[in-house]
Amino acid sequence: MASVHRDRSSWAGWSAGSVSRSIDSGKWGILLIYTVTKGDTLEKISQDTQVPPEKIIYDNQLENGNRLVEGQALLLLKEGESGDYGTGLSVGGYAYPFVESAVLEQAFPALNELLVFSYGFTFEGELVPPPQDDQWIISAAWEQGTEPLLVLTPFSGGAFNNQLVKALVENQELQQKVIAQLFLTVRDKGYAGIDIDFEYVLPDNKEQYAEFVGGVRERFSPYGYRVSVAVAPKTSDSQSGILVEGLDYKLLGENADAVFLMTYEWGYTYGPPMAVAPLDKVRQVVEYALTRIPRDKIIMGIPNYGYDWPMPYERGLTRARTIGNVEAVNLAVENGAVIRYAQIAQSPWFTYTSAGMSHEVGFEAPRSIEAKLNLAREYALAGVGYWNLMRPFRANWLMLE
Question: What is the pTM for the complete model shown?
Answer without folding.
Answer: 0.94
